[in-house]
Amino acid sequence: MKNLGILLTVAVCLGCVFLIGCGGSRSSSANSSSPPNTIASSGTNTAPISVNGGPLGGYADGAFASVTVCVPGTSTCQTIDGVLVDTGSYGLRIVSSALTTVTLPQQKAPDGNPVAECLTFLASYTWGPVQTADVQIGGEKASSVPIQVLSDTDFKVPGGCTNSGFKPADTLTALGANGILGVGLGAQDCGGACALPAGSGSKNPDWYYECPSSGCVPMPTGEALAQQVVNPVALFPSDNNGVIVELPAVSGAATTVSGLLVFGIGTQSNNGLSGATVYTVSPEFSFTTTYNNHGYPGSFIDSGSNGLFFANTTGMPECSGFYCPSTTENLSATNKGANGASGTVKFSIANAQTLFANASDHAFNDLGGPAFGSNPDYFDWGLPFFFGRNVFTAIEGKSTPGGTGPYWAY
User: Fold this and answer.
1) In this structure, what is the dihedral angle of CA atoms 242, 258, 180, 386, given to the nearest 10 degrees?
2) How far, CA to CA in Å, does 363 sit from each of 51, 53, 250, 268, 306?
3) So what's the pLDDT on residue 25?
4) Do 98 and 197 form a contact (C-beta atoms < 8 A)?
5) What domain range is 372 assigned to?
6) What tens digit of pLDDT does each residue of 43-66 get?
7) What is the mean pLDDT of residues 292-301?
8) Contact 25, 308 (CB under 8 A)
9) Residues 6+ apart with CB under 8 A from 375
10) What is the rounded CA–CA span in Å between residue 190 and residue 208?
11) For residue 349, is pLDDT > 90?
């Protein structure tokens, strides 16, 4: 089972905490070793992204894209806007209410029963059926992609979800987006563990379920790799070894910010590494960040988190899940990959209440908060880290000019 490192909070308002994958934050100060932040001007391997408040208009530091889903092998399609781009998870998840003009085929287990998935995060869960779609993003298309359709009504939610005490994130209101586009390091959302038979004593984490009818209690099941919810980029015919999130620098706050999601690493003239430093990761898809003389080996880079989230070891004032220092704090941390590559990142943390005072601003380069949990082992580099950097995410098992994934590079 892969460590998704996902923290997800389910309230929608400007200033609420959103962490949909891994996550973190950064300041406008760039690592001196980073290459220039040039935004690709065009290409069939690109899709526009926008930090714009999302479909409800109140999302802070979320990058959104449009995704087209089609009934496999047909021209019956629907384009869905407001899908959150998330380098900290793997797979496409669409809120069922957003699917208004297409009905996608339901995935079936070998015994003919429909399959659903419960994906438990650190603070919430998503539940819903696994369905199949042809997926197009920008000029790239993947065929017969297993996706998760988020819904609490198609099948009864199993105790494995509800007993966690977490909140469901299966609606537009709860999620703040029409879906999640997981383009992170993993090829599938679980991997070999979920392919094992379910049952007592199994190492299967019970993410996948089958149920013969809508009223039954779903039972855990094994799910073959080819049937699992998959990173759609990994199924593109080309440009399928990773992505680049390209966003311009932000000084303080901005109403909207436009950038690009670029597919492929070193596959075309617009997606070369260009001197970026490669940070390979552990089997759990993490590296080590050292901050305030403490190492956090579970650290990650995640466009699905809307701030820089790290342990409050200095007593910084907090407010509603964010940091609220009286004056902006100028800080630094050092990232170190499993390959020994290291580099210092300078960042700033401003007062979140001050940042959120102007409701028309949705992009912030100095937003941060305390890491979730009593003794967190991670430093969560979220969307503010991406402003002014081109951040590469290489998919596991895929060959790239920087080596075989998984890795992050910037």
Assistant:
1) 60
2) 6, 8, 8, 30, 9
3) 28
4) no
5) 268-409
6) 899 999 999 999 999 999 999 999
7) 97
8) yes
9) none
10) 10
11) yes
**Residue predicted with more confidence, 23 or 147:** 147
Contact 144, 69 (CB under 8 A): no
Tokens for 224, please give them. 């073959």
Residues 229 and 178 in one domain: yes
- Residue showing tokens 């790799």: 225
The reported pLDDT for the residue numbered 115 is: 95
Query: Is 30 a domain residue?
Result: no
Bridge partners, residue 329, by sequence: 349
Percent of residues in the chain assigned helix, strand, coil, to nearest 5: 5, 40, 55
pLDDT at site 352 = 97
Catalogue the long-range contacts made by 74-78 (C-beta closer than 8 Å, 24 or more residues apart): 76/102, 77/102, 77/134, 77/136, 78/102
Statement to judge: residues 151 and 218 lie in one domain: yes
- Do residues 353 and 402 both lie within one domain? yes
For 201-256, what is each residue's pLDDT tens digit? 789 999 999 987 766 778 999 999 999 999 999 999 999 999 999 999 998 899 99
Residue 105, SS3 per DSSP: coil
Largest CA distance in the chain: 61
Tokens of 4: 């998704």
Placement of tokens 């709860």 in the chain: 174
* pLDDT, the chain, mean: 90
Beta-strand ranges (E) seen in 158-204 are: 167-168, 179-183
Q: What span, in angstroms and rounded, lies between the C-alpha atoms of 397 and 389?
A: 25
317 touches 324 (CB < 8 A): yes
Length of the chain: 410
Q: Please give the model's pTM, rounded to 2 decimal places.
A: 0.92
Q: How far apart are CA 296 and CA 378, in angstroms?
A: 5
Classified as helix, coil or strand, 174 is: helix
Does a structural domain hold residue 375? Answer: yes
The pair of structure tokens assigned to 163 is: 């007993």
CA angle (348, 394, 322) in 5-degree steps:
25
> Is 80 found in the same domain as 142?
yes
- Band the pLDDT of 6: cuts 50, 70, 90: very low
The pLDDT tens digits for 366-382 are 999 999 888 899 999 99
Task: Indicate if 121 and 217 belong to the same structural domain.
Answer: yes
